Amino acid sequence: xxxLYWHIGENIVNNFKKGEKRAKYGEHILKNLSIRFTLEYGKxxxxxxxxxxRMFYLYYQKSSALLxxxxxxxxxxxxxxKDENIRNFLRNFxxxxxxxxxxxxxxxxxxxxxx
Length: 115
Hints:
The protein has two domains: 1-66, no CATH class; 68-115. By secondary structure, it is mainly α. The longest helix is centred in the first third of the chain and has 15 residues, at 27-41. The protein is globular and about 40 Å long. Helix 1 packs across helix 3 (47-59). The chain is 63% helix and 0% strand.
């Protein structure tokens, strides 16, 4: 699932740049993708999730940086953290099985980890 979401994020970022330095993201583009993917593939492609997939790719542009033992929920929690150093620390911290739940709890409780 992580690989799929990473590739969707990659396609969103790369296909909407159209040769420009920055993509002109409009809410309507992601909303249309969300509707199309939901009709074609079912649940899991809400507008919020599409935005998360885009951020997932932007934060982890090297797919080799992804840890297979972490789930999408873990990465959603990490995406809330804007500071790359803290995000990397938490990603490494969560590699230990007992710590994974702590990362997810941070996400679901809405704890803001920005510094």
